[in-house]
Specification:
This protein is an alpha/beta fold. The protein has one domain: Carbamate kinase (3-Layer(aba) Sandwich), CATH 3.40.1160. The chain has eight helices and eleven strands. The strands form two sheets. The protein has a nine-stranded mixed beta sheet, with helices on both faces. Strands 7-8 form a two-stranded antiparallel sheet. Helix 1 (25-39) links the parallel strand 1 (5-10) and strand 2 (44-49). Helix 1 packs across helix 3 (67-91), helix 5 (139-149) runs parallel beside helix 7 (196-205) and helix 6 runs antiparallel to helix 7. The model has no long low-confidence stretch (mean pLDDT 93).
């Protein structure tokens, strides 16, 4: 395996699957089967899931919601998605635990880095819900923070695109894909990999980012086996 411990960032929108809203059980099954396959090979997997399929705080504030309240609603949306993922893992007999950034027992145990690492060492997939627990931070930033706290080898960003391009490949057919790219180049070009806070945090702490298409079954295993199917962001 290419990595021993990973932080996998999934977007909330990805859980919509083909139905285009809410949570698609078929997509849940595809994701959990891929993750279980690498967990059974000894890879320690922590997951941060977004909440955009239910509520996004920033877009809510543009519609008149108070920003702090909107972001708190977004944090709760990530917890709903975390429970859906946990339920799907339990259905396929994969040990799983949910840790939340704010106290929400019995929804999940309160997060701490030491607790997460102990659970990972015992073979659990650990879902880290609630973002950072503070407003004004995205789940991308939450992913960077958690990856550093649990001492992950890499932060994997599973998207619907197979890497980072010079432009949006869904809009520009001439867009060119990068196999590798530096943090500085991502920031200079204004590429929409993650928000800038998350990118800078990874840069300053040497956390590699790998962007790949998680929606294609089998791709997670390919990444773990070292196949070059996405884009690696490094110093």
């Amino acid at each position: 395996m290419e990595y021993k411990r990973i932080l996998l960032k999934l977007s909330g929108e990805s859980l919509q699957g083909k139905q285009g809203f809410g949570i698609d059980t078929e997509r849940l099954h595809e994701y959990t089967e891929q993750i279980k396959a690498i967990a059974q090979q000894g890879v320690q997997v922590a997951i941060v899931i977004g909440g955009g399929n239910i509520f996004r705080g920033l877009s809510g504030s543009k519609r008149g919601f108070d920003r702090v309240k909107g972001d708190q609603m977004g944090m709760l949306a990530t917890c709903i998605n975390a429970l859906a993922l946990a339920s799907a893992f339990e259905a396929i007999d994969q040990p799983v635990r949910v840790l939340t950034s704010i106290c929400m027992e019995p929804i999940g145990n309160h997060y701490s880095p030491d607790k997460a690492k102990r659970l990972l060492n015992k073979g659990n997939v650990v879902i880290l819900a609630g973002g950072t627990g503070s407003p004004y931070f995205t789940t991308d930033t939450g992913s960077s923070l958690r990856a550093l706290e649990i001492q992950a080898d890499v932060m994997l960003k599973g998207t619907r695109v197979d890497g980072i391009y010079t432009a949006d490949p869904e809009k520009d057919p001439t867009a060119r894909k990068f196999e590798t790219i530096t943090y500085d180049e991502v920031i200079r070009r204004g590429l929409k990999v993650m928000d800038q806070t998350a990118t800078v945090m990874c840069k300053e702490n040497g956390m590699p980012i790998y962007v790949f298409n998680m929606d294609k079954p089998g791709n997670l295993g390919k990444v773990m086996n070292g196949e070059k199917i996405g884009t690696l962001v490094t110093p």
